[in-house]
Amino acid sequence: MKLRMKPEDFIVEEIVDFNKISGDRCYLYKLTKRNIECLKAFSYISKKFKIPLRDIGYCGLKDRHALTTQYISIPKKYGKLSLDEPNLKLELVGESKFLLLGDLEGNRFTITVRGLKKDDIPKIKENLKYLEFGAPNYFDSQRFGSVFDKKFIAKEVIKGNYEEAVKILLTKYKKSEKKIIKDLKRFIAKNWGDWDKVWKYIKENNIKARLYVNMVKELKKSNDYKKALSYVDDRLKKIFVAAYQSYLWNECIKELLNKYIPEEDRVYYEYECGTFMFYKKMDIEVFDTLKDKKFPTIAPDIEYGGDEKKIIEEILKREGITMEDLNNIGGLGRFIYNERKILSVPKNLKIGEFEEDELNKGKYKITLSYELEKGSYATIIIKRAFLGVKTKKRKR
């Protein structure tokens, strides 16, 4: 199976409650973008219309490799704006308050899955029969861009492994990163600890990336890995902490579901951080018990009780850390308490027919559309729907 062969294969439409966002401070715009990263789109609008980024309000960030529609607010003092370019469109739709992340209700997805083999269709049909029972509401791969070789920067800091945390930051890279940064990280990996040599490389290649320049400069001066981490900006720090907290939550949900799902109905799926456990089907009584139930994130300043406490203690034990250890996060921030639904259940689910795939000769495609509450990942539903079908990752 193949995902996102073209942006129109992954359509995302933001759902907002217009009554909740009503107001007269800002103009409300519908932003449609194709194959553009969200923050880059905001930055482009900011520069084009000379509007500070902080004055662009939004409810959520949308996928880059997709065709997406969302709402943004801009104070009226900047006038009425309009934009109509091939991959970016801005339409005035009314008035609103200044939008914030919490204003999002959910998202509507229309996803076309391609490259399906004829032999896989019976298996997929069986999976789709139970899709109304949803899937575990896991945080998916998009949450774990800072994780390499299943190592979490936040966990390394918690355990006092500052050098390892810095090593991940300065030597690991994604294919999508700029060549000059990938070359720098390769050089640092080969010359780890020789900070004079690395500093010389930075100067000779006129590297301007502030994070890497400042960290290497500090290491050249003091060889203090904890100090070097202080140069990471707040946005990245939050990402590192959120990644590890999200992984711990995923592990808690797996542990919880093991009590409800018989072994014969469990299916496992490998991802960047470990293994997801999905269920083939779910007893209706179990579904009714879990469908609206929430499970908390792990935070050291919260007192847990009952089954929640037992599950959390078990997961932390496996990780080789204690609840108290979570306070040893250095300057990265803190673990924030939240509650998240255990299951992600698609609403207004529509399943298309299997059709010949015009982009993959001899293969088939199918389109699914559904709505999810904010914070739930459309890709988790897709993984659930196509369990047992080999995925070919999209080339980027």
UniProtKB/TrEMBL annotation:
UniProt keyword Ribonucleoprotein present: no
PANTHER family cross-referenced by the UniProt entry: PSEUDOURIDYLATE SYNTHASE PUS7L, TRNA PSEUDOURIDINE SYNTHASE D
Keyword Cell inner membrane: no
Span of domain TRUD: 134-345
Species of provenance: Methanocaldococcus bathoardescens
Keywords for this protein: Isomerase, tRNA processing
Protein name per its UniProtKB record: tRNA pseudouridine synthase D
Similarity field: Belongs to the pseudouridine synthase TruD family.
Gene Ontology BP annotations: pseudouridine synthesis; tRNA processing
Molecular function terms, GO-annotated: pseudouridine synthase activity; RNA binding
InterPro entries noted in UniProt: PsdUridine_synth_cat_dom_sf, PsdUridine_synth_TruD, PsdUridine_synth_TruD_CS, PsdUridine_synth_TruD_insert, TruD_catalytic
Superkingdom to which the source organism belongs: Archaea
